[in-house]
Amino acid sequence: MLLTVLGCSGSVPGPNAASSGYLLEADGFLLGVELGSGTLAALQAVRDPFALDALLFSHLHADHCADFASLTVYRRYHPRPTRDPRAHRLPVHAPAAAPQRFAGAYATDAEELAVTDLSDVFDFRPLSVGTFHIGPFEVTAVTAAHPCDAYSFRVSHGGRSLVYTGDTGMSAAVVELAAGADVVLAEASWAHGDGPIPDLHLSGREAGELAAAAGATRLLVTHIPPWTDRAGVLAEAAAAFPGEVTAVEQGAAYAL
Predict the structure, then answer these.
(1) pTM to 2 decimals?
(2) How far does Cα 48 stand from its chain's mean position?
């Protein structure tokens, strides 16, 4: 598996930094995970957006899905698509409210919203807890500890596994999901003890503790907001996890 980071700024985009967005690739299949602010521009810099084979969303907060409206315009109005977007509707695995949420972001007013249906270029597939397949990937979803319909994922392929926490507080479900994973891609939105709201985000220390409990060999830290002390979060994670700790960078690719 190859992970490419389109954006990794937490909660909002930062200076010249897109919000959450990733590509996972294996066996020639290209899976987009999240599509936050700025990620469609980043995607165009590295791949043809029509090459996407599927999209996967952990939840519907704007920093994880805001560029979906722009992708809709791209798929509906590009004059020379490299893949017919109506003959090949893009599968979108997302919380059940996604069709209404994305139509609302696309439509300009109530009149347009009443007749807006994005199913001409997208194939919406509602998420639920359990294991399913997206192309060559086996995906297991569990409920995340976050104040909306949200999920954490374990993605497996070729004997390797990546756990992506999405946005979540620490929970028994995410600990169980991560057990035995090779790589943990964990959000870390603040220093431990600074979080104002429970069941919202992980601290740097909690991200390290999660990877350590999983027995992972590698921790990739993401979703650090522009107002958070990046070095402090990484130091916390490294103190709690004995393996390799890396803060992901926009535009970087990581072999898993």
Answers:
(1) 0.97
(2) 19
